[in-house]
Protein 1
Amino acid sequence: MELNFNLKEVNELINFQRINGHSLKKPYAKYLPEGEDKTCPPSLLLVGDQGVYLMNHSEKTMPRKDGKGKKEGWSQVVFAEECNPHKLDFDEWRYNKEDSFGGDDGCEIYPIKNFEMVSQDYYNKKGLPKKGYEDFFTIELSPKSFYLKGIKRRKK
């Protein structure tokens, strides 16, 4: 299943992380067996939980734009358009989450350099975003695999 993430918002996550430092420890490192590599490159996290979303993996928590969850340390996230619990009915986002990410909650590490390479290649061919259009990172996702498919441009 294809999931689309707003490119501008994803770039905000990446820029925040660049400024505030990358966490190079896997988010689930404490659960890994002794001797297993617990480090990761500068990355975004692809999370399946209440929807499917990308979040930064930095030293600091990125404050949410809506100001909620400040005490709890909630971080700003970018939901997939197809799995956004704030915009879709429960049955729709939940079905799409299970179809793409699986029924269990979890996270996958996705290196920032992959997003940057796809962005650079796309903008070299297409140019900067045009007024009245939005660009989206497209990830092909199934419960067993995922990869960054590319960028799509569509009219707002």
Note: DSSP finds three helices and seven strands in the chain.
Protein 2
Amino acid sequence: MAASPHLLERIKESFELLTNMENQYNTFDSFYKNYFLVGHQHKHTKLFHFLAIALAIIFGVAFLLTLIFWFLALAILTGYGLSIISHYLFEKNKPATYEYPVYSFFSAFRMFFETLIGRHKIL
């Protein structure tokens, strides 16, 4: 069954809106340093994000190895769920995902790997 032209147009408009929102920052590095890290200053927020990404990676790999879709659902739910909850519990701000979904997705992974090498304290 083919998608209606109206549906395809709405999808295109949504993608353009997301792309334009991300372009408010000249570079990903600018977004990460001037927006993402500013909204992630509490060590418990960083801890929740670290755990969220670690679990998302584990469940994502489990999905790729087994093709059991529950693992994919768990990867998405833990990855976003724990991260979003931490903003309301500790940071008292709105998650970057709501306004900048693409940049914030990659920023969460960058912060995860920077935490692994000791750039961010979570304990």
Note: The longest helix spans residues 43-66.
Protein 3
Amino acid sequence: MSKIKKVVNTIKDWIIGNGIEGAAGLLVGIGLWIFGFKIWAGVAFGIFAHKNWDLLKSAIKSKI
């Protein structure tokens, strides 16, 4: 049970850190990809990747 809580808390922290733009970018990108709008899906995935890059960069800066 504690492992499930840890996973849920990690996902929740990721969504909070990523913001609505990152989470929405992932969901919209998947939806667009499924419906065949691959160029627009790439734009949405780019927003998602940018938000994750910001999280990674801030995590690395906090370690230094």
Note: The chain has a mean pLDDT of 86.
